[in-house]
Every structure is written in C-alpha cells, then in structure tokens.
Amino acid sequence: MNAKKLKQELNALLGDEARIRTDAFECELYSTDVGSVPFANRLFETVPHLVVQPQTVDALTKVVRFASTEKVALFPRGAGSSGLGGVVPTKEGIALDLSALNRILALNREQKTIMVQTGTRWSTIETAAQQEGLSLSVYPSSFFSTVGGWIASGGYGIGSFQFGHLKEQIESIEVLFPSGDVRLFTAADKEFPLFFGTEGQFGVLLAATLKVRKTPERQLPQLLYFGGVDAALTFVTELIQSKIRPYHIKYLDAAHLKEVNKLIGEELYAERDAVLVTLEDHAEDLKFRQFAKNRGIAADEYLARYLWHERLFPMKRRSTQPTLLACELIMPLRYVATYMNKARWIAKRSGLDLQAEAHMAGETDALVLLSFLSDVRNPWRYLAHLALVPRLTMLGIKRGGAPYNVGIWNVPFITQKADPQTLRAYRAYKRKVDPCNILNPNKFFAVRTRWGVIPDLLFNPSLFKLLIRGASLFTPLMARSGEDRNHESVLEKTMYSCVKCGSCAAQCPAYAVTQDESLVPKNKLYLAKKLHEGGHVSKREAEKAFLCMHCGLCREVCQNDLDLVAAWEELEQRLEQRFGRPEQAVREFVSIAEDSPAYWRCVHAQEI
Ligand SMILES: Cc1cc2nc3c(=O)[nH]c(=O)nc-3n(C[C@H](O)[C@H](O)[C@H](O)COP(=O)(O)OP(=O)(O)OC[C@H]3O[C@@H](n4cnc5c(N)ncnc54)[C@H](O)[C@@H]3O)c2cc1C
Ligand code: SF4
Ligand code: SF4
Question: What is d(CA 279, CA 220) in angstroms, rounded to the nearest whole number?
C-alpha cells in the first residue's frame, strides 16, 4: 500500500485519536537513532511511509490491527535513545511513535507500586513518585527515555547492583499483540521474561506496574582512585564479597576523569582509574570507609558527589572530534579488566582515546561501556572507526561477554546474546504471535536488506566477522588527531556534537505544546545540518525552527552541554536570510503556547 492510500485509510480509521505525519522531512526524522551509520539508508528503506502517534490505547490497537490485516510493517519507538537501529525502519511501513501514551495510571503508596503507560519517561515517574515519598529502585542513565523502550531494550542501569535487572522491579506488563489481543502478564507468568530485551519483536508494551521504594534519606557517594583497572576491579570484587551493600558501584577509567577535568576546566580529579560507590545508609557508609582504608585513595567528597550527579550525563565530552561511537556488553566481572586492557591496546594502535566504564549489574556481571570519538564528516576514517565497534564487541564475546542490544547492527552476534534454547523459544514465540512478521522486521533475528541475497550475506555471522577483522586492519592507517574546530561557529559545533539522545525533547515546551518532532532541539540541529550541507530545506520546514520560546530548558538537560540557545539564534539568523522571518507564525505559536497547560507544566516543573 502506498503512503497516500495508507494515510487515507488511517485517517478514516483514527480520526483525531492519533497524529499522522506524512511530510517528507518529519518522516526523515524517524529514520535514525543515536547511532550514525552513513550507509544505513542504502541497505534499508529507513524513512517510514508515515508516522503515527496514537493519543489513546484504542487508536494504537486500531493501528496494530490494521497493520496486521494489511501486512504493513510497524516500527515502535519510545524516545529513540537506543543506538543499534532498534527503532530504525528497515522497509516501507509505519513508525509508531508511542511517546504520547505517557499517563501515570495509578500510584499505590501502601503497596509501593506505580502503574504507567509505557510512553512515560523515567524522569516523569521519579517526579511523581517523589511527591509521595517514593523513588525508583533502578533507572537508566538515559533518564528521559521511556519505560517501554527500556523494558524492550535494556534493563541494567543505576541501582542495578542492589536491585538487579529491571525485570525484578516490575510486577506486571500489559502487551498488545499484532492480532489486536491485549494480555496482562505478571512476573509469575512463564511468558513474562520474553518481553525483556527482545526489542519489540512480540508485541507493543502498553503498560507496566513498577515496584518503587521509600525514598532513601540520603545518598552517600564515595570515589576511590587506584593504580590501574586490575587494582580497581579487584577492589570491586572484594567489596562484593564483603557484607557491605552499596546501592550502586561504577568503575571509571583515567580517560573518563581526564574528560571530566576538561569539561569543568580544572584539574580537580586525579587522572587515574577509579571506583564510584554510592551508599544509602550511614552505618553501611562507615563500614565501607573502614573497608576502603588502605585499599584505594579516597577523593574529596564533593568530587564524588559531582560524579554521582553526572550519572545522568554519560555522554558529555569536550573534544575536537564530534561523533561518539560506543560498544556495550554485559560481561562476567572477572573478565572485565583483561578485556579493557586489550580493548585499550587496540584503540591506541588506531590512534583513538578509549573511555571505559562499567556498572555492576548484580554480584557477578558488569555492564561495560567503551566509547571513543570520531568525525562522521570524514567518511573513510569514520568507516574505519565504525568497524572498530563490532571489533570490540567480538573481542568482548571472546572474553565471555554478550552484546547488550541487537537492533540491526548486532544481528550477527544474536547467538551470543541468547543461548540456542532461548533463541529457539524466541523464534517459536515470534511465529506464534507475529506470523506475518510485522513488528520490527529485518532485525534481531535476521536481516533482509532492500537488495536481496548478496548484501544480506554481509550479516552472515562468519562473513561479518571476517569483514570486520579485515576492515579494522585499516583503522590504524586512519590514525590522525582530530581537525581543529576552533573556526566553527556555535551552530556548526553544536549540530555535529549532538549525540541525538533526545533528553531535550522531554523538557522542551515547544514540543510539549505541539508534539511535533520537528520542534525537538535535536531535530532542529538535524535541519541545521541539512541547511549547512546544502540539502533541500523548504520554507515550511524553516518556519518551524522559529517556533521556540528561547527558554533555555533544552540546554539545562543537554547530554553534551551544548550551547543550544546561542545555536538557535544563529540558526534563525541563517534561515531569516534565506526565507525571511515568519512573524505571524511565531505570534500564533506563542499565543497557543501561553494558553496551553502543557507549556505551563514545563515552566512549573522547572520552578520546582
Ligand atoms: C545518554 C544515554 C544513556 C543511556 N543509559 C542507559 C542505561 O543506563 N542502561 C541501558 O540499558 N541503556 C541505556 N541507554 C540506551 C537506551 O537509552 C535505553 O535502552 C533506553 O531505555 C531506550 O528507551 P527509549 O524510550 O529511547 O527506546 P527506543 O530507543 O525508542 O526503543 C528501543 C527499542 O524498544 C522498542 N520499543 C520502544 N517502545 C516500545 C514499546 N512500548 N513496546 C514494544 N517495543 C518498544 C523499539 O522498537 C526499539 O527496538 C542509554 C542511552 C543514552 C543515549
Ligand atoms: S529554547 Fe526552549 S522552546 Fe526552544 S528548543 Fe530549547 S527548550 Fe525548546
Ligand atoms: S541537543 Fe543535547 S540533549 Fe538534545 S539530543 Fe542533542 S545532545 Fe541530546
């Protein structure tokens, strides 16, 4: 079915129960995620036919039933903060934007539970819970991502040392299947675990009941320095074996602390490997201090507190290279040090400064994140750097690790994520609940490109690994320091340094009022890039960039600390020179915004 017919049918079906977007630019905004893979649109139809943003569960059910009957592919999307193509369309179909299904359905103070729709962001839940003296037990560093997205793709984050995987903090989930049936699964149901980490393959998550806890009276972070990764992780192992029970344990390497020094513009932190331990109880804190004495060098408490605050900003960087590349694995703690040493050696040989961190995920495993910077504007060098990401994943797998997410780009490693029995169970369930494969096709289980068998072979595990080994031989040849970016204007620096995490969407009143993705700061930067690189920008697209209150709320939460308000001023100047200033549209927008409760909610949230 072509886009026009699809829109007609869906309009007739949904009326104003859903926002339907067919504008080429708006659809293009749904063609990417946090990752930058320049050739993705050559292999797949990454731009959806249209975007549907259901406003009600009823509308969502109608869309899913319709797609199932008409065999139209659906690509569910929360905040789009994942990075392996999990939300990226792979063929003609519908991008299903679930972010408007964001209501808190029930909060039970006695039972300590919160039931939410899955488009709700973690930050919203924590704010609501705190008003009742409650708090989340675990949450992702991407605090502005959605509940549905994290159930589908993650589950380890802040608090996972004490509270384990997200699965253990959920009482029940409600799932909408492609058939249109809705089922409630409690933690006791056999099928319950199937929906965690399977990236929306079996159904659309509608609601979840989360366990919360009494807000801890205090959080007491401590930072200790060590002589290297081996010493730091030996300390972590001993700490786990002791009877002390911290809330969270995180390892950070020297490169990480060097970057923090750069960010704050002062050498406050020792540039050494370190462990950040957060306790929530004075007695435990005393025991910990006793335990840590003579094992590591304690940093001043304010330094530990600052790093703890920054746990929600893991992508902040100050560097000449703008594009962040990352590899994430879940790995037995005992192998992490060897893995990091080898990974660092490989990156160094390629002239790259690797940053490493590991969050303890329970007593035996760690969620390991390796990242480095490159520049997507330098295509060959960037491709060589990009090849290093699967290379580091392969290295981690060899050392007992498993890829954390699959999406499109980790499909060759699916057998390392799930053992044969689990994978068989997944495949059988997929056949049962989604026989026409309408949900997130060409991902997770197997990839089909738009060109048929030969390019599909690229995703064959053996060939893929061979290609990656070959490609990464070239990475050292591409070693060169980043170009000088001092000549770039604020807008140029900002557009290329945006990591597309989407945190800004959660705070932006212009987006809250309109629910229009084109107004989200990261998407205005996408438009700016198009304009800067000489791509086609229409007057209508340009007009939307002016619909901004210049309130600066986006800057407050920006993952990469970008000077966004200055960037908006420059963008508007550039657009004004070409298209003129849309005075009337701006006036109308301001008046609509000021009459909108959504606008005042954003302003009020800021005042709190
Ligand atoms: C700064 C930053 C920090 C991060 N920190 C962490 C972390 O601490 N821990 C961690 O695990 N990850 C982390 N991530 C990765 C990512 O943010 C998380 O996995 C996140 O929770 C995904 O949520 P989302 O709403 O953005 O989902 P999306 O990226 O929109 O979607 C992810 C996947 O879930 C599917 N999906 C989304 N909603 C639904 C639904 N309702 N029903 C069915 N399928 C659905 C999508 O199709 C896709 O496959 C981080 C990312 C960033 C940018
Ligand atoms: S300045 Fe305010 S309205 Fe404008 S993009 Fe940022 S948050 Fe949105
Ligand atoms: S502008 Fe900042 S907060 Fe928004 S997506 Fe880019 S890096 Fe993230």
Answer: 5
- Angle at which helices 57-70 and 3-14 cross, to 10°: 140
Q: Based on the structure, what is the number of domains in the chain?
A: 4
How far, in whole angstroms, is CA 601 from its chain's centroid? Answer: 25
Residue 479 has pLDDT above 90, yes or no: no
* 483 — pLDDT class (breaks 50, 70, 90): low
Each residue of 531-562: pLDDT tens digit? Answer: 999 999 999 999 999 999 999 999 989 988 89
Per-residue pLDDT reduced to its tens digit, 259-279: 999 988 999 999 999 999 999
Pocket of ligand 1, candidates 34, 82, 199, 310: which has the most ligand atoms within 8 Å of its Cβ, to mutate? Answer: 82
Q: How far is the CA of 506 from the centre of ligand 3 (A)?
A: 11
CATH number at residue 260: 3.30.70.3450
CATH number at residue 446: 3.30.465.10
Give yes or no for residue 239 CB within 6 A of ligand 1.
no
Question: Could you tell me the residue range of the domain that residue 303 belongs to?
Answer: 219-315
From residue 479, give the alpha-carbon distance in Å to each of 17, 256, 339, 349, 389: 53, 21, 22, 8, 15
Q: Position 56: which residue type?
A: T
Residue 86 beta carbon below 6 angstroms from any ligand 1 atom:
yes
Q: Is the pLDDT of residue 603 over 80?
A: no
Whose tokens are 């964001």? That residue is 102
Closest atom of ligand 1 relative to the 99 alpha carbon: 25
Q: Kindly give the distance from the C-alpha atom of residue 562 to the centroid of ligand 3, in angstroms, as a whole number.
A: 8
The answer on 474 and 336 residing in a single domain is: yes
- Centre of ligand 1 to C-alpha 461, Å, is 25
User: Does position 608 have pLDDT exceeding 70, yes or no?
Assistant: no
Q: Are residues 22 and 57 in the same domain?
A: yes
